[in-house]
Fold these 2 entries.
Entry 1:
Amino acid sequence: MNANQARRLVVLGTGGTIAGRANRANDNVGYVAGQVAVSELVAMVPALATCPLDVEQVAQINSKDMVLSVWHALAARVAEHLDRPEVAGIVITHGTDTIEETAFLLQTVLKPSKPVVLTCAMRPATALVPDGPQNLSDAVAVALHPEARGVVVVCAGRIHGAIDVAKVHPYRTDPFDSGDAGELGCVEEAQLRVFRPWPQAVPEGAFDAAALRRLKGAAALPRVELIFSHANADGEVVRALLGQTAAAEPLRGIVVAGTGNGTVHDDLLAALKQAQASGVEVVVASRCAHGRVVPHPGQPLPDSAGLSPVKARLALALQLLEA
Ligand code: ASP
């Protein structure tokens, strides 16, 4: 294999605003996501013309509508390309709304030893000043970095680890934050400055094949619902969930986004205890934008080990899949 082949990249398209189309160039919100082919997005970035690339359209969706079948297809394509010795890394174009969930899922399941870089945009491809081409270009710089590994999200010149990244703003072009952990690094004129270790990777091989088999074998993820504790929370929503018999998947878990340090309204807690007694796993995360539940003796519910509510929901579903 020559050096050129070893630097081959794969770009997988899944849709999102980066592939969005609006009727007017000055409309950054009234667009339809997932319209422009990933091959066209790649063609908008001149620097990619000289980079050996394979480009595939895995899906073409608004990521708010993410479903398990797309995750199955994406994880399978990522794994297949990771196994190719000539592939240095993978870039995935994705919507910003659930990019943190897809990144978390791919990192938790695959733990890839090569970089898997998700990128996105807050403005559609048709915008007066689209942010997608620069983000895609930065993502390529990350995927080609010789030390890069694991799943990261690249947006607005910042590299975020899959475990910590969260979308924190609905409009600005730098909408992600990695909370107390801080971003992993940044991309400046295609050069990386790396501040923290790359995400954990499998000790050998390209990815965790056993975990991928488990995911692929699941027709559905174990059903885990996400609810909030808030003023006047009375537990009625939990009792409704417990009483629901027509659901396609039986209820296996509940994540409650608690107030502050994972505290839960007494009336909601009583209903959650009832859920636990009927065999439903209950985990508490914090609804605060930053920080984590600080564990303490006598806490009434197990906590999410620092994961945000949406990630705790996925983590519990994946854990139940293994059980
Ligand atoms: N709704 C879009 C999506 O997640 C938002 C975006 O990409 O910014 O696909």
Note: Residues 108 and 315 are 8 Å apart (CA to CA).
Entry 2:
Amino acid sequence: MTPAYLFARRERLSAALAPSDALLVIGAGEPVPLPEGSDQTYPYRAHAEYVFAAGSECPGGVVAYDPRERAAGWRSFVPPLTEAERVWCGSQPREGEDVAGFAAWLDARKGRSIAALGAPVPGVNADAAATDAARLTYAEVRRPKDAHELDLLGRAVAATTAGFARLPDLIRPGVTERTLQIELEVAFSHAGANRTGYGTIVGAGPNAAVLHFEPSNRAVAPGDFVLVDAGAEVERYVADVTRTYVAGTPTGFQRDLHAAVRHAQENAIARCVPGAEWKQIHLATAVDLTAGLVAMGILRGRPESLVEQEVHALFFPHGLGHLVGLGVRDASGLARGRTRDPRPSLRSLRMDLPLADGFVVTVEPGLYFIPALLQDPVRRDRHRDTVNWSLVDAHLKIGGVRIEDDVLVRAGAPEVLTAGIPKALD
Ligand code: GLY
Ligand code: MN
Ligand code: MN
């Protein structure tokens, strides 16, 4: 029996795909064995496009859709359980038709164009143009979250909140980044997480300026910034949260840096309303962050003009955020018909689209002292008059601050799903 939420989701897909006569084939993908014959595989994650249409993960599964049959056109093929799976893994029977029948389904529709999403399915000759068109339409349907997705996301947020609640008591000089990671992830699991949604980031001191830092055995030193970016996953739905702490009493400089990021982040959240262009929110946030740096004496000039000169990218070298939900990047990307903005500080934005009711976005500005950028002679020369380089050099090992929340865009006001995780410095 197809659950009601999945039936409704497929209806939305059918309607959106209707202008096309192409068949849709969505592969889950196969587990990838670990090398050296250990009889184990890498942790399995079915392709997100499959999970969206199937409602669950099934290695080797295929969802197929014939638009000429509308609601009856959705078929789910699954591999039959093998004895080995029953003996070694205790696997239970799966819902769906035997995947052996997929070849006959395809054969009965010979000559039709095929859009292939998800993981490749053997024997399917995809049409590239039909695939590109279907992928874009599919992403558009995935972006607004349905009630079932928001429920799973709520559970991921609850587990994430429980994990972050452990941190303030643990962050003391002497604790290692790795210990913080372990305690956080244990708390996620106790609170219902299946696993983490991505590799947990814990960076202390200068490591806080490494955007995707893998926790090390470095012990937190007195006065260090400690940046933690982590999220629990529940049935493939993921939260993505960052908080930055100080081990001990923050200095005035640390307080100012944290306040500048927090102020910019809260302004950005307020701008997350239906119809707002993500790129404009990113640029407005860059202006707010730059104003903070001007107030601290790190930059000189008018914030808008400094952003036009891309000075902000020395300290804020990433995009404001991305969609989050079914995977940490969810169905981010470009609105229909758009190409990437070629400006150096914008070309790596993970999305360029107008927000709409039901989207869940991360809002994650940051200000960092990244030696690889700030010690680059070309950048120092280009921005010699607008940056107070001696003040920068005095703080080159301070690390950085990022604050990240998951925000549900609603017609009234944005709803901060992760509001239960405190962000104040003390
Ligand atoms: N956790 C990685 C990111 O914030 O995008
Ligand atoms: Mn993050
Ligand atoms: Mn993020």
Note: The CA atoms of residues 245 and 425 lie 6 Å apart.
